[in-house]
């Protein structure tokens, strides 16, 4: 409790908030877990705690639409509260680590115990990803459409949608693969939510899958390489991809250990196609490279020439809209939840590596300097883990 006007005052930062087309030097005052006031100058004497953000970007807390944080229950999962300050991420979407049989445990042990806001997609496979290496839908008995619908109904505050990993070594070939894919679509429709499809080396083509997706459904790993990509054999963007994006299908990055290829992103951007949202797919095998964190993933888009404002938008207001929570999240509007990321812009020459081991040199690296979660300043910050090249 404080008698001051603000619990925290972020001073002299460069505020970038695409949700309200705000970009400029502003002070941000926080009180009782909400954004209390934004102005060109607020009185530091009115604040219990002042954070000097001079020379740094003050943006809405980042939203990572693809992580795995079912720690100690599901292999490769990470700790949400450790990832949060390292990346300036205040809301995470766990992408199907749990399924109908273990979602209650996920809620009790992760969602309710972590300070970071964790939302989740429910895996079509009843066991989620606890035995992911065997392919969670290779045995068709594991597909649990009714269970997914029931789980979402039981946990409407946490379970926001449905997840399927549509690779042939996961869902099976031919009819079996199609059957699982259609079950996942049906579960999304019956639960009144949306479907995230992990595209891999799938038994069906990307255009074939897109025919079944509606506004609000999502393709993650959209810049994967391999034999099935969003480009055709001549390297042109599939017309169906452009059409799907136009009708509101979400194209999410989901960088991961195998799903971000420089040439793919470059080619898509050159053809006027941008992802809807930037996400990491962080798990134990990509945390120490090539992904590291959200700001590093965002920096890769800066290196490709996407303007900073749009990169911030892809990590704040757009994912908030995908989650249906844009009134509260992904924004610094007065009265909204005080989730804030302070990002430091470091300049130099940084080795940025894609999921296929190809390196490019970026000249700007964003690093999480401070994170405020629901009005509370979180200890720690991101490190500059990219190799810095001497001139
Ligand atoms: Zn994933």
Features:
TIM Barrel, 15 strands, eight-stranded mixed beta sheet, about 25% helix, 11 helices, globular, seven-stranded parallel beta sheet, about 400 residues, alpha/beta, binds zinc ion
Could you characterize what this model shows?
This protein is of the alpha/beta class and 391 residues long. The protein has a domain at 61-322: TIM Barrel (Alpha-Beta Barrel). The chain contains 11 helices and 15 strands. The protein has helices spanning 80-87, 103-111, 145-154, 168-171, 174-191, 206-210, 239-246, 262-270, 294-303, 308-313, 317-322, and strands at residues 6-17, 22-31, 34-39, 47-52, 56-60, 62-67, 89-95, 117-123, 159-166, 194-199, 218-220, 250-252, 340-353, 359-373, 376-378. The strands form 2 sheets. Strands 1, 2, 3, 4, 5, 13, 14 and 15 form an 8-stranded mixed sheet that branches. A 7-stranded parallel sheet has the order 6-7-8-9-10-11-12. It binds zinc ion.
Helix content: 10-25%
Number of strands: 15
CATH superfamily of one domain: Metal-dependent hydrolases
**Which regions contain 5 or more consecutive residues with pLDDT less than 50?**
none
- What would you report as the Rg, rounded to the nearest angstrom? 20 Å
Coarse structural class: alpha/beta
Q: Total helix count?
A: 11
Each distinct ligand: zinc ion
Q: Sheet bearing the most strands, described?
A: 8 strands, mixed
Which fold name is given in CATH as the topology of one domain? TIM Barrel
Give the distance, in angstroms, between the N- and C-terminal Cα atoms: 50 Å
The level 1 CATH classification of one domain is: Alpha Beta
What is the percentage of strand-forming residues?
Answer: 25-35%
CATH architecture type of one domain: Alpha-Beta Barrel
Shape: globular
Average pLDDT taken over every residue: 96
Helices and strands, in N-to-C order?
EEEEEEHEHEHEHHEHEHEHHHHEEE
């Amino acid at each position: 409790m404080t008698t001051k006007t603000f619990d925290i005052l972020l001073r002299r930062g460069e505020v970038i908030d695409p949700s309200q087309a705000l970009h400029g030097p502003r002070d941000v005052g926080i009180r009782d877990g909400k954004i209390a006031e934004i102005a060109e100058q607020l009185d530091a004497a009115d604040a219990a705690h002042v954070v000097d953000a001079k020379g740094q970007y003050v943006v809405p807390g980042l939203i990572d639409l693809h992580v795995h944080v079912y720690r100690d229950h599901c292999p490769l999962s990470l700790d949400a509260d450790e990832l949060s300050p390292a990346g300036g991420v205040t809301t995470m979407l766990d992408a199907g680590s749990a399924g109908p049989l273990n979602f209650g445990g996920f809620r009790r042990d992760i969602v309710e115990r972590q300070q970071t806001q964790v939302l989740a997609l429910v895996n079509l496979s009843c066991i989620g990803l606890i035995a992911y290496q065997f392919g969670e839908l290779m045995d068709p008995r594991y597909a649990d459409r009714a269970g997914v619908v029931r789980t979402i109904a039981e946990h409407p505050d946490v379970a926001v949608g449905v997840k399927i990993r549509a690779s042939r070594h996961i869902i099976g070939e031919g009819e079996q693969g199609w059957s699982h894919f259609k079950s996942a679509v049906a579960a999304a429709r019956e639960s009144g939510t949306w479907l995230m499809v992990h595209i891999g080396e799938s038994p069906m083509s990307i255009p074939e899958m897109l025919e079944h997706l509606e506004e609000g459904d999502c393709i993650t790993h959209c810049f994967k390489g391999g034999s099935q990509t969003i480009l055709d054999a001549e390297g042109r963007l599939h017309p169906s991809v452009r059409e799907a994006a136009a009708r509101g299908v979400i194209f999410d990055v989901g960088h991961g250990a195998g799903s971000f290829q420089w040439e793919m992103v470059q080619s898509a951007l050159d053809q006027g196609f941008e992802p809807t949202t930037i996400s990491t797919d962080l798990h134990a095998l990509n945390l120490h490279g090539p992904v590291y964190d959200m700001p590093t993933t965002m920096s890769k888009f800066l290196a490709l020439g996407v303007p900073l404002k749009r990169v911030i938008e892809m990590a704040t207001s757009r994912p908030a809209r995908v989650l249906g929570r844009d009134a509260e999240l992904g924004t610094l509007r007065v009265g909204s939840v005080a989730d804030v990321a302070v990002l430091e812009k470091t300049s130099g020459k940084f080795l940025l590596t894609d999921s296929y081991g190809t390196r490019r040199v970026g000249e700007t690296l964003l690093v999480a300097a401070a994170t405020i979660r629901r009005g509370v300043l979180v200890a720690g910050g991101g490190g500059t883990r990219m190799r810095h090249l001497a001139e």
